[in-house]
Amino acid sequence: MNIREIARLCGVSTSTVSRILNNKPDVRPETREKVIGIMNQMAFRPTIASHRHETIGVVTPTVAHPEFMGELMNGIMEAAYALGKYLTLIPTHQPDAEDLTHFCRCNGLSGMLVINPPLQSNLPQSLEEHKIPHVIVAASFKDQEVTWVDVDNKGGSGEMINHLLRGGHRRIAIFHHKRHANQCEEDRIGGYIQSLQEHGVALDPSLMHEMTMADEDLTVPIRRMMQQDQPPTAVFCTTHRLTFNVLNHLKLLHIRVPEEISLSGFGDYDVTALMTPALTSVYQPIYDMGKTSVHVLEQLLNAPEYKKQQITLPTRVIVRHSTRTLSVTQ
Q1: Domains, the chain, ranges and CATH?
Q2: Higher pLDDT among residues 232 and 59, named by residue
Q3: Of 24, 52, 95, 198, most Cβ neighbours within 10 A?
């Protein structure tokens, strides 16, 4: 199939199809939508330079966490270079499956790496339906027929809570982002809840604080939390940015870490050990996750038929000075 046949099916000129393929602005939105829809329906892939077929698309969210994205992209780039692959970055906050399918075909991409799509996104299923080879990175869709590479978010979170429980803590607060926003956040909260339940510790909603922003003002919730009849003796944060923010507000309120409260978080970076005190954290192999995702995509591209791969990389707790074991009297 060529652009003349696409033009005939759409009832437009070949020049209009050409302008759409080249992302020219002088096409009515309704015409563009119609043509793209038929291209996707017909699985149309235009003729392009052959070397472009060795290009992988990397669908990235807004880079709000440069430490994470830097390590992940280093792993992706090194593996792609070793395999002779090019990379095309596709920055998007809420990826549209139809647009991405169109972009992939029109730019001759051999496949896509999709980094941490929103939990409610239909992108993984849509790419599967359109037969676009892809790997979901830093998110796990365990009950779906999609391929993904992720770290053990639930297990890492649970192991951190286990560490605190072994240290005598029973009142453990959690600071987390909005629930149902993405799978890794949901898993980390799930690890916190499951670990408490397994140790017979009742879940206290007053110790769970949902944040809308990583740099949210925490003065009021922390003060209220510490003024309870039974204040928490430890805090767990689901991202390293939240951990930094909680530490900053504890200092502003003159609450000593770890003497008055232990502090831990998910995510370990160079700066984590440089904080005062050095932070106890969950290490996740971000660089390895990037490399693994490229190799998994390469396997999918070379396989005679599609067979999903779902890979979970292990995490580990790194204990530093921000947590302590409670004395018997506490």
Answers
A1: 1-47 (1.10.260.40), 50-151+288-313 (3.40.50.2300), 153-284 (3.40.50.2300)
A2: 232
A3: 95
